[in-house]
What we know:
By secondary structure, the protein is an alpha/beta fold.
Amino acid sequence: MFTNPGCYKQLLKKFPDDIRKIGLLVRKQIIHRVTLKNGNIDSNSDLKYGDMNKFPWWRLRCEDDCLPTASAMISELLRLDKKGFTLNRVVENKIVITCRYVSVLMASILKTKSIPCRVRSGFASYFPSFKGSHDHWINQYWNGKKWVTIDIDGSLENIGFDPFDVPKDKFDWAANVWLGVREGKLDENNFVNACGAKGLMPISWTIFYDFHSLMNNEIIYFHGPNYSRISKFKNLKEKDFEEIDGLARLMINPDKNFDELKSIWETKKKFRILSGGLIGDKDHVKWR
């Protein structure tokens, strides 16, 4: 649903074949909401993202709620500038989205060009403007031999390594973080989401974001199993945590364990049925 390009399939097929060129082209179309909020300081002191003072005052400061799918993002980009994806798109015509949306757009383009690609969710500690490890979404594409990790949202930042070939140990994978905290090897307070929440609860969100993404269902931030919500999480029992432990262990190596993950996807309703702003467990078929 989320990466399907819809009527823009032929447009995306015309994109260059070079991954770096595609990534740069995608990054030039967007403004991250944090960049817009901070303005022309810190990472944008050189205006590499454009002059934030030129962004219209009346537009939303984040369009995540309006543009959840690749086709929606492409449609809005074309509405703002009929020339489409250009390296010199002006600030006024860029969309304001966060890392999950950048990853969905990148995955849509690569999949359309028959390049296997998947979205991944976890945490990143390599952004100099943040303390700790913050929730983050990236991509992996198959180069014919292995999955290559790329960070399109961070591709213009000075992160100390090639964002188009992120070393495995630089990204804090959701499953590793969950198990590390559960086993007492990692400090849960070091992992923070955009709302400022810390600990196992937001870490559990990334587990389900990543699990669903591995199944080609790149859910939005407000979607997740109802029992992982703030009001419900405090009531979880040890057996509930152990169930998530089992999922996380399989996700450590999703390719090796893909058949088992797919079986869970098709049978374990409590991991797959989602709740959101308007829908909760009472609206669904019972999963217990």
